[in-house]
Specification:
four-stranded parallel beta sheet, alpha/beta, binds iron/sulfur cluster, Rossmann fold, 12 strands, binds 1,3-dihydroxyacetonephosphate, 46% helix, 3 domains, 15 helices
């Protein structure tokens, strides 16, 4: 069987298995085109979490990285949550551990810990609140309005510095030294290259990019915010400053626009570990299941629920 026929067969089998097992497939924007095509819902981290919370499917398959599947399990613990490949881990999520956060809290008991969802369940469980890139500014602004003046932002120093720029200068915010290797590799030279090559282009970047990149961009936003921006902009040439999987989605919603990736290898290797054969295997054999103990589920749920309430 050639690859095309094989993929066609797998897509049909995946659709049949979804119906038979009352399963829902939630996919992140960075997923491979063939995964996006069989997904029931495509979204950013916040939207995937919301969808996982409200679904009445018996099985939730998360096509994304491990923390996204963990988040789905934490907020909808009675469902079977599966990820097609257990090694699809976000490298930034590994840059902070529960022990490190507990140690920090011991030395800084009056600091409020805001944790990006790109983190492990263990780290979430010892955090005061979670946020995603779509709501980070809003969440911190609300906390400031409630009188909180001292924060630690974990683990992304770039998203943290973006949030810090948006809040009053007298608010203290310490940044963890984590970063996304995919976004952090982009430099201002990449932006300048496109500005010179296409003077009429519009450059939209994710806040996980460095400040020098954000400062030169036309728009900064989470993946879903970039999608919204593309829908309403009149610009015909858009340079995308986030993982290139999103370009497949953008081309579908704006087929007359031209898209370029801001970096020659804007690829999250973990996201690309989710393939069609692995998704098929996942649904057929109901693996790999996310299992977390009751206490951890309960503790990690609190900061996520707080986030969902505030955003
Ligand atoms: P979004 O929440 O904007 O989709 O970002 C998730 C992510 O992992 C970015 O690298
Ligand atoms: Fe993690 Fe970066 Fe991949 Fe997003 S793009 S999942 S932050 S490694």
């Amino acid at each position: 069987m050639n690859l095309y026929k094989n993929y066609k067969f797998l897509k049909e089998e995946i659709r049949k298995l979804k119906l038979k097992k009352n399963a829902i497939i939630l996919a992140h924007f960075y997923q491979l085109p063939e995964i996006q095509e069989v997904a029931d819902f495509i979204g950013d981290s916040l939207e995937l979490a919301r969808k996982a919370k409200e679904t009445d499917a018996d099985i939730i398959v998360v096509c994304g990285v491990y923390f996204m599947a963990e988040t789905a399990k934490i907020i909808n613990p009675t469902r079977k949550v599966l990820i097609p490949y257990y090694k699809a881990g976000c490298l930034m999520a590994d840059m902070a551990t529960k022990e490190e956060i507990l140690e920090y809290k011991k030395n800084n008991p009056d600091t409020f810990v805001v944790t990006y969802v790109n983190s492990s369940a263990d780290v979430k469980a010892v955090s005061d609140i979670c946020c995603t890139s779509a709501n980070a500014v809003k969440i911190v602004e609300k906390l400031v309005q409630n009188g909180i003046k001292k924060f630690l932002f974990v683990p992304d120093k770039n998203l943290g510095s973006y949030v810090k720029e948006k809040i009053p200068k007298d608010i203290e915010m310490e940044l963890w030294n984590g970063y996304c290797y995919v976004h952090d590799q982009v430099s201002k030279e990449d932006v300048i290259f496109y500005r010179e090559r296409f003077p009429k282009c519009t450059i939209a970047v994710h806040p996980e990019c460095k400040k020098e990149v954000r400062d030169l961009a036309d728009f900064v936003g989470s993946t879903s915010q970039i999608v919204k921006f593309v829908k309403q902009t009149t610009s015909d040439i858009i340079v995308v400053g986030t993982e290139e999987g999103i370009i497949h989605y953008l081309k579908k919603i704006a087929p007359n626009k031209v898209f370029y990736s801001l970096h020659r290898r804007f690829i999250c290797d973990a996201m690309k570990l989710i393939t069609l054969p692995r998704l098929y295997n996942c649904l057929k054999n109901e693996m790999y299941e996310i299992r977390l103990d009751e206490k951890l589920l309960e503790e990690a749920r609190k900061p996520i629920e707080k986030m969902l309430k505030l955003s």
